């Protein structure tokens, strides 16, 4: 479509195949936390018994994606570090054990 004469003035804005692949990779990366967010938003009242296991699952999914997409390793590592920081803080609280025991039932 953009090969037509009337679109020649915007052809310079076309993305290269490499840039399109980068955008696809970023989209796949962002879909991971989005899926967890969508799951948690589906709950009428998200509680720690749902959120904490979701964070654990999110970490697993991010580690897996990091192995699949080494080009985004740095960005994924920052995301993982921040989530691990929150999970580490949560694990130090008394409510963590209660929340996790409720998630089993």
Task: Summarize, please.
This protein is mostly helical.
Write a structural description:
This protein has 105 residues and is mainly α. It has a domain of 59 residues. It is built from 4 helices and no strands. The longest helix is centred in the N-terminal third of the chain and has 26 residues. The termini are far apart.
Whole-number average pLDDT? 86
Structural class: mainly alpha
Sheet of most strands: none
SSE string: HHHH
Strand content: under 5%
For the record, give the distance between the C-alpha atoms at the N and C termini, rounded to a whole number.
57 Å
Number of strands: 0
The whole-angstrom Rg is 20 Å
* Shape type: elongated
Stretches with pLDDT under 50, minimum 5 residues? none
* Helix content class: over 70%
Quaternary structure classification: single chain
Query: How large is the count of helical segments?
Result: 4
Q: Which key terms come to mind for this protein?
A:
single chain; 105 residues; mainly alpha; 4 helices; 72% helix; elongated
Task: Give the topology, please.
Layout: H1 17-42, H2 48-68, H3 73-91, H4 94-103
Helix pairs in contact: 1-2, 2-3, 2-4
